[in-house]
Request: fold
Amino acid sequence: MADELLTMLKKVLFYDALIALIVGAITYFLLYDYYLYILVGIITAILSFFLNGIITNYVFNNKKGNHKIIMTLSSLFRVIIVCAIALLMFNYNKISIFPFLLGYSLHFIGIILYSFKIKN
Reply:
């Protein structure tokens, strides 16, 4: 794996972990019933992000094969996995989809923080 990609993944993971700890602690005390759904959303987003980084790195470093098919299938696979997790949570508790989506969206704050860090 490229050093730059590995560094990015580690730093985004650090920001995501920090966000997860802060938001997890706040929701644990204020909205105890929903904190696990938020954390599952963040973890799902992190796993999808890491999988995307690994597959993209593989595609760009591998000169053989049809890259369009690999990228399309990997994107489709990640979307199906995320939707399946969201659907399972929705079937378990209809309200759980909102904290899950909030947690999933919190991952983007980690990406934004990383982009501000590299900008400076």
Observations:
- The CA atoms of residues 61 and 71 lie 13 Å apart.
- The radius of gyration is 16 Å.
- Helices lie at 3-30, 35-61, 67-92, 97-119.
- DSSP finds four helices and no strands in the chain.
